[in-house]
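Handoff note, outgoing to incoming analyst
You'll be picking up this chain. Sequence as last confirmed:
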Amino acid sequence: MKLSRVLVLLAIPVLFASVGFESDNYYLFPIKPGERNYLSGNYCELRSSHLHAGIDIKVGGVVGAPVHATADGYINRIKISYGGYGNALYIQHPNGTVSTYAHLHEFNDLIQQYVKKAQYKKKSFTIELFPQKGELAVKRGEVIGKAGNSGSSGGPHLHFEIRDANQRPMDPLQFGFKEIIDRVPPYVRRIALTTMDENARINGQFGRFEFSLKEQNGKYVVSEPIDVRGTIGVEVAAFDKATGVRNVYGVKETELSLDGERQFLCLMDKFAFSQAKNIHVHANYEERYRQNRTFFRLYVADGNTLPFYKTNSQKGRITINDNQSHLAQIKLSDIYGNTSRVEFTLQGQPQSSEQLKVRYFNKPYSNQNFHVRENVLQVFAPVKKSPEGIYERKLAKFYAERSTLEEPPAYVVNDVAVYLWYLNRCIPDSVDICGEVSTLGIKVRVPSKSAFSFYQPRMNVTFPKSALFDTLFLQMNHEHEAGKELFCIHKNNVPLRQNMQVLLKPRQFPEGPRDKMSVYRIDSKGDLGYEGGTWKGDNISFRTRTFGDFKLQVDTIAPVITPLSISPSRLRFKIKDAISGIREYEAYVDGEWLLMHYDYKRELIWSDRMDKSKPLKGEVKVKVRDMVGNENVFTTTIES
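Most recent structure output, in case you need it:
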């Protein structure tokens, strides 16, 4: 069944009825209601680590825009945090839904005093409160605060959500806000096809292949047929746009059909927060890591539990085992019914590899001669031609489980022989091609749905149940040179749903005290990210949700405190730490705790007196500690 603009609009009253609406005017737009507004982000946009749960409303690039309650109700939750949503309000409405307002600069006076009183009682800037029904009632249109840039925000805006009675975020734009105008269809960059098992081929090869598109007769097309055999998956790189802005958004609805029959439909309408991490398998995580481009899959990958999909019996995958020509079509739509279409031809190919065309040579990593995809090990090796111009199809020797197994190349292209090895058969530790032996580094097969521990001489790794989205063929390596020790745990091209537990057993230790020595992850730029760790003897354990390279580092440098303003009316400081990062801070004036707001992006803390009529005076003491306990204390005196 194809969803059109008409059907989407017809569905809205049904949704209203399900939550008790009498009309589509139940909700008020929270920024400049009744006036033209613009978005910097839309619902279910694909962020780096999660699905976007609401809409981001522009406020002109500055803080301070009044934020209005979208409907009658009462504030049932207030949360203030350094990152995440920053200063956030949650309003419970009589119809059972909850609206959320995040990254606020400040609350209105009534809410601000309520929160400040609790902060002083707890002696903490970060706080989470759950007011009762009669405490903080609000009316539709009431100003509840000002839009800002608090928490993990990249600029001033309002993050706005509407959640159902089960706390599942819904698309606010489905409720008919006339403040947003959009007449622009989604834009499509490229498509990609991926082989889904060791017998599949795309243009004669195993792997993943991208294809450029050109606009023709109002749609996007691939200029030539794509030769296909076996089961494949389709991906698309696309984004939505809107009238009057340059921002790009996520695509609301995507449909894939083959010869007129729908194979896959994704309609992003509602999801649970516990499912937000599934973005890592909704989109192609490895391609994000490898080339910083987002392709989302038009099939349901293993481990994906999002509720958005309707598919064929193969979860959207396509199998072609004939020699016929097949028309594939992709339709991409936004919530306003603006639609773009992609068409390409899949040409079925016979089983004989001699008749397959081989184009677009595919080697994912130029510095690595093997790659694992869909339980298949792909090995690349240069080959020579005979005097007659025929490639020498040398057998590769795979060493696995104390046996030597020989395998011919699956195909040869561009003077490179490509060998395919099905890893569920057994895991080779090395391969010999023409006398050149390569160690693969694959240690073990890790199942995705059960807890699993693996022990090595220099490190142990434990995966809790469901930590992985899919089966992992774990690669590990320990590098030790003079003055350098590196612990390599797979590549950061595989996502984790939950933290894994790691135990490192170092051979050498950096100079410095053990209690200041922690584990740090090395990112792609060579920068260090603090992971922490707990020592037990000469071993250190830590938890992480990221694969990659890790090392030990000592941090004995205390944070820096730089005064910016010291007066009876306010205190303002810049705080910064060079290595492990800031864990906590506190301020006292004349022996009494003083609330200090913190913006980690600007490295600023500033005071907020409980009683603004009472000036600050006496001894000022500001303490800042980093993640390993190094502490700096700044003291001064404010004279009365």
